From TrEMBL:
The lineage of its organism: Bacteria, Pseudomonadati, Pseudomonadota, Gammaproteobacteria, Pseudomonadales. It holds the Pfam family Bestrophin-like. Keywords: Membrane, Transmembrane, Transmembrane helix. It comes from Marinobacter panjinensis. The chain crosses the membrane at residues 12-32, 52-70, 186-207, 213-233. This is DUF4239 domain-containing protein.
Length: 260
């Protein structure tokens, strides 16, 4: 539910939202710093400096860790697309080993399967695409199993193995795209450290009496860009950074129906 809520927010809104929150927490800390200054605490700013540096360093570390996690998952999704294209292509070629009546049916189902996968790459009607994919698994298994029972030899065994690999790859892609995400606990930790760092930085600025917006605003925008980039990488199909489907598109083009 939380993941779906985050992904329903446009990526541009996330950028401006993160920027606004960082500036808000910085302003909140600034007000605390101004009050501390009026109390005449001369040691306050000295003790706060190392704390600001430490929190900013911790924020950079957690942000880098989150980015690495999202980036590795994005790379895995790209590898899964290429692997699925290779497996479907192998199954399509091995279908020639079946009898004519089975071969035609299996190849047509594989063409429909690839068309569904390519069409679903933009994230629209994803649930429908998953249901159709599962249905094709059932439909394609019927002629393959019948061919194996009618003629149990090496050729049909190769086709059965290829179709099994295609079906297994479906679950692998679903897991990589929809289930392997940055955990919510990591997002909470990143948000908490971000807020604490901005508040502490604002307190330090408030105690010096100089807002230095020309430095604070670029800092907030820079961190907001990085956070937005991580969020975008964590989205499999609804973000600006999408997994390329060229290998599947090339496969679809090469699977043109045979003409006689």
């Amino acid at each position: 539910m939380n993941s779906q809520l985050i992904e329903s927010i446009p990526i541009v809104w996330i950028f401006f939202g993160v920027s606004a929150l960082m500036l808000f927490f910085c302003e909140l800390g600034y007000q605390f710093g101004v009050r501390a200054k009026t109390r005449g605490d001369t040691e306050f700013n000295t003790s706060l400096g190392p704390m600001v540096g430490g929190l900013l360093g911790m924020l950079a570390f957690v942000l880098a860790f989150t980015f690495s996690m999202a980036s590795s998952q994005h790379d895995l999704r790209k590898k899964n697309v290429l692997e699925e294209a290779n497996l479907i292509g192998t199954a399509y070629l091995r279908a020639d080993l079946l009898e004519e009546r089975y071969k035609i049916q299996v190849k047509q189902l594989l063409r429909d399967y690839v068309a569904i996968r390519v069409a679903a790459a933009d994230g629209s009607a994803l649930e429908t695409a998953l249901e159709k994919s599962t249905e094709i698994h059932r439909l394609i298994w019927a002629p393959v199993s019948s061919a194996a029972l009618d003629q149990p030899d090496t050729n049909t065994a190769l086709v059965v193995q290829a179709i099994n690999d295609v079906i297994d790859m479906h679950e692998k892609r679903v897991t990589g795209a929809l289930r392997n995400r940055v955990p919510m606990s990591v997002w909470v930790a990143l948000a908490a450290i971000n807020a604490l760092a901005m508040i502490t930085l604002g307190i330090q600025v408030g105690h010096t009496g100089n807002r230095r917006l020309i430095a604070l605003i670029p800092l907030a925008l820079a961190f907001a860009v990085l956070v937005t980039l991580v969020v975008d990488l964590n989205r499999p199909s609804t973000g600006l950074i999408k997994v390329g489907q060229q290998s599947m598109s090339d496969l679809e083009s090469s699977m043109a129906p045979e003409t006689r």
